[in-house]
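Example 3.2
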Amino acid sequence: MTARLRPVARLGGRSAGHGGSLAVAGSRFAWFNTIERRAADGSTKIIGPSGLDGAGRARLSAPRPALAGLGLDSPRVMGILNVTPDSFSDGGDYAGRAAAVVRAREMADDGVDIIDIGGESTRPGAAEVSVSDEIARTAPLIAEIRAAGVSTPISIDTRKSAVAEAALSEGADIVNDVAAFTFDPELAGLCASREVPVIVMHAKGTPETMQQGPTYADVTGEVLDFLEERIVFAEGQGIARDRIVTDPGIGFGKTGAHNLTLLRDLAAFHDLGAPVLLGASRKRFIGEIGGAAHAKDRLGGSLAVALHGVSQGVHILRVHDTQATIQALRLFAALNSDKTEEE
């Protein structure tokens, strides 16, 4: 495994101890004054900010570049709009275009920062959707959303270059690839040529196979190594590093225990030097721990995980329950902002 740094994220009044304190990846709320340094052999040591070199300090603390015009010093909400008949949580709810346009307007009115539109379910066991079907589900919808006057940035949730190209041509702004360019390597070149931000996510296997006994020797280290390799690949294809967002892929080829480990270690993903997206909304492990068999009954657990993510400096929350999440974030901000900001 590669040697890694994990800032020990904190909230509340910042401390001057241990060589000062630094913001976690540009966060207004989360800060750190200690760092766990993990060597390649797995041994760990706690150091202070004074033990960081310039590159390490920048990776862990520097503000992240704006994404589609959105500053990332406060967490951004990405609202999920699945136009599929078989997504695990809302399959069929917005398969009709009129209902999907209404939902997009609702999310924009709620104040979401990004609308994430997907035409292929990537739930465990889902079968691949043809390119033509995926385009038919997404591109005309994006055109209608734009025609309806919704200017909120749109991301297209797809693994396929042809689908992304059609979506971008109709007004999408971001490409969200759960396969991190491993399914269709040509997608990276398209994103480079269109100069759009990209989200690269870790997944083990395909949706059809990913939950068939996934195993890791070190889930956090392996996910970090994979994402770093995909960042290098994307840069090699011409995508500027300041346009790359990372996603640890909660629930994609992970057991409940793996998910919890990744969530506890979220701050380690700042060592990649890129914005971090967290997509845990309504996932199975939330239901298993929280006692909610049905996905739509997992709001409380989803909010708990989202606010944990913000406490670790996550930049983007991908969620189903947009209004409730935005309300929770407003209260979180009021409780955790410096008093000097209010005076």
